[in-house]
Amino acid sequence: MTLKxxxxxxxxxxxxxxxxxxxxxxxxxxxxVGYRLPTVRGLAESLGLAANTVAKAYRALETDGxxxxxxxxxxxxxxxGPAAERELASAAQAYADRARRLGADRDGALAAVxxxxxxxxxx
Length: 123
Fold this sequence. Notes:
This protein is mainly alpha-helical. It is built from 5 helices and 3 strands. The chain has a 3-stranded antiparallel β-sheet with strand order 1-3-2. Strand 2 (67-69) and strand 3 (75-77) form a beta hairpin. Helix 1 crosses helix 3 (51-63) and helix 2 (40-47) crosses helix 3. The longest helix has 20 residues, at 82-101. The termini are far apart.
């Protein structure tokens, strides 16, 4: 799995082409959740674009929730749509398994989830 981007000089602005192609590959699963994207500078050099062009595309993708930047850790494909639902289901299953192993009954496990959700969502 690798990022594949082709810039067509006669089409949409280059930043929009980068944004659209990364978005499509992430949403299709071609780029899986957690896939580390190239640095802005690295992708710009490989595509023959200005770094600001790629940075603009990355900002738009982050605003759309397609990617997430983890500071100096890099930029990654974020969980969104069906991928987010799969990740949520996986996390829920892991929690349920862990709660059972810890000896929590169903009501105790649900109470812990409700408390965590209230804290996370500020309720």
